[in-house]
Amino acid sequence: MIADVAGRLADRFAAVDRPWTGAAPADLGPAIAAVDLDRPLESFEDAFDEIGDLYLKDAVWFHHPRYLAHLNCPVALPAVAAETVLAAVNTSVDTWDQSAGGTFIEQRLIDWTAQRIGLGPDADGVFTSGGTQSNLQALLLARDEAVENALLKHRLEVGTPLRGVEVLPRLRLFASPHSHFSVVKAARLLGLGEEAVITVPADDWFRMNPAALDAAIETCREQGLIPAAVVATAGTTDFGSVDPLGPIAEVTAAHRVWFHVDAAYGCGVLVSRKHRGLLGGIEHADSVTVDYHKSFFQPVSSSALLVRDRASLRHVTHHADYLNPAEAVFPNQVDKSLQTTRRFDALKLWMTLRTLGPDTLGDMFDRVCALADQTWDWLASDPRFEVAAPPSQLSTVLFRLAGADDDTHRLAREALAASGEGMVAATKVEGRTALKLTLLNPETGLADIVPVLEALARHGKKAQEAA
Ligand SMILES: *Cc1c(COP(=O)(O)O)cnc(C)c1O
Questions:
Q1: Does residue 134 have its Cβ closer than 6 Å to ligand 1?
Q2: Domain ranges, residue 110
């Protein structure tokens, strides 16, 4: 069955001639709703044929060289093979007695990543479902450290008992306007509220201003509030900008505030031989988010949270008699995770590193970063376009159709997707729509991108003429 699927899937991939068919919800929704889930088909082959119609025919193909939209990567084949293995064995990396070698394989990759970052001898971490969960857990650790410190301080200075819940409303987090929305979401989930996130201004290159951060923390202290964490972004989702990690680390050290680096996107730089310097300062972080499913070319999901001090992970530990009793002598990864039953995603990265090696992955990421620069130059020199941001430090490109308004951009992008000629994303830069390319396919070249841009210009012109 599995060998058969591999063959059929390979045929599908070979037949893909565009990133997407542009199917509308009205095409797919009713067909899927009409399936009678209580009445199985005759065979697995029939079921596979059915998903061929309902899903694969109109799937969005991230490996296609003209898929240029979101932070999705084509996947390394050793990882796809590993996905089959881990699903078949069905290892759960929560306790030693459900994973055995899996525990050590995951741990080796955590140690390897922490070493690449330079977190030091007490580092640790755990695989997570994605950057959103990694950021949530990082901020949970920061919150609980801040609460513990505040309670201790209160006991020493005031002498009366104080409850943790009384501290929560005073906690503040700091992030730039270009940080990922999961930071604000985490603040909500952690009982701090969105208002707890203080926005620190960024410069013209969309990077956090460290002097403004220093001032914001100072103001916070003067108001009797407690700065609990600074979130620096190493690769903002829209701009690929990297906050100045070294100078931010100096500010967080001076104020003794938890320093979290969200490197969900930029983590690929950890294996780059060319650009490693871009992440200078990350070694000072208290916690780091990495998304292997973005710039390590891994299938979703594959992500991790790394911490400088393994003791900080105690904030998510709970000992259950039936699972991971406190007196357990074997390592139980569940002690460090928000999840209980957990996929053995680490095997995918393991197989990728053991087959391709880190330098190859780094070269792949370097290639898409270089391609973004080439594309930027091409756009800047063509009067039909204007660039909407300076060249990215990573692999995004923001631009507009010259003289076009928001509606024209929307129509041009929709027409492009519907035609199957290519896929691009859209966002806003300074309140105005901009089109966005996120380049993550090392097999894409400028020769693939230019026809997509030409098509956009054509669709934009048509939309303007019709208006
Ligand atoms: C994608 C992204 C996230 C969220 O990661 P998921 O894996 O999608 O949950 C967080 N931060 C940044 C900067 C991202 O680009």
A1: no
A2: 90-355
